UniProtKB/TrEMBL annotation:
NCBIfam families: PRK07069.1 (NF005473), PRK07231.1 (NF005559). PANTHER family: DEHYDROGENASES, SHORT CHAIN, OXIDOREDUCTASE UCPA. Belongs to the short-chain dehydrogenases/reductases (SDR) family. This is Glucose 1-dehydrogenase. It comes from the Bacteria. Coiled coil: none annotated. Keywords: Oxidoreductase. Pfam families: adh_short_C2. Gene3D superfamilies: NAD(P)-binding Rossmann-like Domain (3.40.50.720). It is an enzyme of class 1 (oxidoreductase). Its EC number is 1.1.1.47. It comes from Pontixanthobacter gangjinensis. GO terms for molecular function: glucose 1-dehydrogenase [NAD(P)+] activity. InterPro entries: NAD(P)-bd_dom_sf, Sc_DH/Rdtase_CS, SDR_fam.
Amino acid sequence: MPANPQGRVRGKLALVTGAAQGLGAAHSTLLAREGARVLCTDINANGAAQTAEAINQECGAGTAYSIQHDVTSAADWEAAVDAARDHLGGLSVLVNNAGIGVAGNIESCQFEDWKRCFAVNVDSIFHGCQKALPLMRKHAPGSIVNISSIAGLIASDTMPAYNSSKAAVWMLSKSIALHCAKQNMNIRCNSIHPTFVDTPILDGTAKHAGLDKQVLLDKLARQIPLKMVGEPIDIANAVLYLASDESRFMTGAELKLDGGISAM
């Protein structure tokens, strides 16, 4: 826990998807530490509940709640927004964090995997923003934070589905930002573009590649100018900034957390 939390999002009401582990758990925890109340959602209901329980043990009962949530389902999104209204009293911050990767180049990638990648990474944001904005308008100022990837800005021959879906998140975020601004909603929307981050996803990657986890981390770090792989807190700090009123003049922007890769 930070030595001196400043309450940078005190009074904010946040919904974080993919909150069972990794980045989503880090976002939820830091927002709570800085004064927000948080609804942790994930298709892994037990994992989301564990994140919320850990937050409540640290920050006090009633700080966090959890629900099971399939982000590809419009009906589940309606239930999630209702849960935010019932448990938090409203919604002012939406963190669209849930996402998946899909293997295979343009010849080997299966179309079903392509569609699943877009459903989780892009359709989720369409449904989420469409369902959440009516409630968020009542609790402005608000902020939507969409987790994209540096892979949405820099392509690879091995991941067309992931590249394309994360690029769609980037552009969709801009469209949402302009809509909210034109409608005078006082709701901002920005995207975050991380490179490699040390989360449980890399455990599976290492296992699939037949590598020791540290060997994989060292290999990935060599591809980054700063020679380090990100930690979840590095991304959570950016989410905190975008969720707070400190970023009130920032919308339709992309925040690159890539250790310098995109500068090459």
